[in-house]
Write a structure and sequence with these properties.
mainly alpha, TorD-like, 72% helix
Length: 187
């Protein structure tokens, strides 16, 4: 997979897990046959046969139910048995960012936590843009693959829309594939 595709896919995933998708974004997605095909047949068919208004309403409900009410996509709340969100440098992800000279301005984000899936995916996007292959591999090993894969396996069953079901599978496959790519590049 080329660098530009990797950057695009991490940016896409970061965006779709950060907030419910607005109709403008959904309209763009509805016309992106290549991306819809990558996500899966059910998503492709749903976007091609359903009105944007219906899609937007269903996705908003699904997003709120999955990511806001039932299974927050935050590493420390998934990994830590106390279900706590760790802050500052006591958060292992924040420590990783700090150790790799990545400045994170949480005040500029509505997410407010350094280990939200969207921020971790955006971090990978940034590392790819900077060609930091070893750090990409390390971040996948130490963080994303440890919690995101089981997380997406778990939420797939909660999803009511084809989009979030397919997106769960796609994210797992993409992260695993990207890790394999990095292993091969670094050997």
């Amino acid at each position: 997979m080329d660098k530009q595709t990797r950057v695009y896919l991490y940016a896409f995933l970061s965006r779709v897990f950060s907030n419910a998708l607005d109709e403008k974004y959904l309209a763009e997605l509805q016309h992106n046959d290549e991306l819809l095909t990558m996500l899966g047949d059910e998503s492709f068919n749903w976007f091609k046969t359903t009105s944007l208004e219906t899609i937007a309403e269903a996705l908003n409900i699904d997003f709120s139910s999955i990511f806001l009410m039932n299974a927050k996509p935050i590493e420390s709340s998934i990994i830590d048995s106390k279900d706590e969100i760790l802050v500052g440098l006591q958060n292992p992800v924040m420590q990783f960012y700090f150790n790799h000279n990545y400045e994170l301005n949480l005040a500029a984000s509505h997410l407010q936590t350094p280990d939200h899936i969207s921020i971790e995916l955006a971090f990978m996007q940034n590392l790819i843009a900077k060609n930091e292959l070893k750090t990409q591999k390390e971040f996948l090993e130490v963080h994303l693959l440890k919690w995101a894969v089981p997380y997406f396996l778990g939420i797939k069953g909660m999803a009511k829309t084809p989009f979030y079901k397919d997106l769960s599978d796609f994210t797992i496959e993409f992260l695993a594939s990207d890790y394999d790519f990095l292993v091969n590049e670094l050997n």
